[in-house]
Amino acid sequence: MKKMFITTVVGSVTPGVIKALANLTREAGGEWLTSKVIKIDNLFAAMMKVAIEDESVESLKQQFAVQFPTLQFSYGAKGEVYNEHTRTMQLNVDCSDRPGLTREIVDLLSNLNLEIEHMEFNRMHVSTIGQTVFSSKLAIAVPDEVSNESVVELLEGVSKDARVSMV
What we know:
This protein is α+β, with helices and mostly antiparallel strands. Helix content is 25%, strand content 47%.
């Protein structure tokens, strides 16, 4: 049974370091389910959700430490991977902004037991129309029995001018 853990990596940016971390994970029989990398000046921080066979977890952690001694690693708790009957939907939501909109979207998805894997919300004032617009990018884990169309329809219900598109 595959297990998953979250690792955070911090250190100096060197050419190919992210690719090397990913290759080492694959060589150990693991895969990154998701990752985020932030670079500032010559430093980076990365978070990866890794799925790997339980018996290979400690070996991979040791290999990270040996092959990347200048990087700092921290690890979150292990858990089983339960995404066998889910898929990820990538969505964009655009509409007029209003107070509470972000909370309403998060509550709507949470109440449906849809897992938000990634969310990015932006608000921009558009002077030509004289109002603030809301734009978001979402990645949502959706059970196989829930249709894409029903998720889109529910999200379009948050505002009379909401446009939801699948990416």
